[in-house]
Amino acid sequence: MRILVYGAGVIGCELAHELCKGKNDVTILARGNWKQSIEKNGLVVQHYGQLHTTKDSVNTIEKLNTDDKYDLIFVTMQYNQILNVLQQIANNVSHYIVLVGNNMTPLNCAEQIKNLSTAEKEIAFGFQGTGGRRENGKVISMHSFHVGMTVGGLNGHLTSDFQKFIITAFNNTGYQLTWEQNMEGWLLSHAAHILPTAYICYSVDCNLRRTSKEQIRLAIDATSEAHKMLKKLGYPIRPDGEEEAYKEKRKKKQRLLYLMVKTPAGKYVISTHCSHAVPEMSALDQKFEELKRKAGVSMPAWDNLRNQAIAFLDNHC
């Protein structure tokens, strides 16, 4: 299959590596020195937890032309950046598009692409659980033993042909696909989970080892408050069991988050991303505030954490 990964950050590079394992014809959109590095040295990924490094040969482009046709396009950019490339995606002739990553306005993104496009498009949304950073000509990627993606339609199942294309792309790779039919609810529920942690990160200047137990408690309470707010607006909490876990297994959630922020995992999964993605987190925060105002609910734990972080966000955006 001919596949484009539009975006060459950690998530895009890890995804391109996985797609190469499936014997696909993989192209990655990259720019500047990073594009030159990939062209000269290959796509080099150090898999932090697995203690090995891979090198793949991929095609590179720096611009997506209107007539560049791909079987699949995965857009792997930060939320604020995705909003700026919707027109380019819409102008392209390719039919199947997967927007991968944080997204507070997935419905609006899908509608913009379809309304701006002269060709028929089918759009899916996905999230790949990968953290890390780029340095010295390589990507340092932190992920579980089997990398995977939660993927699906905005509010319903993908067409069978679209689903088959995605499955075929990852045949014989070990990449795990988790199908979700309400990615709008899933993405908003995910934001309810990550934003409190991001607030903590910014309140301690991205040094998570300074996190207090009180902040951990507030983060769990804030996510529960956000679940109630989203439900009031009619959004389902996804995946199944997520809302209950924050209520019935609250202490377990606190212990897991405390362990995360006090170990290297927190650095790679949370603080590294937060420190390099302040505009994205700020954009997510602003959209979440709009939902809060629309719902008109009280969220004291959320507001407490947000107020601790707001000075950092204001100074770095």
TrEMBL record:
Transmembrane segment boundaries: none
Residues annotated as domain Ketopantoate reductase N-terminal: 3-152
InterPro entries, per database record: KPR_N, NAD(P)-bd_dom_sf
Protein name in the entry: Ketopantoate reductase family protein
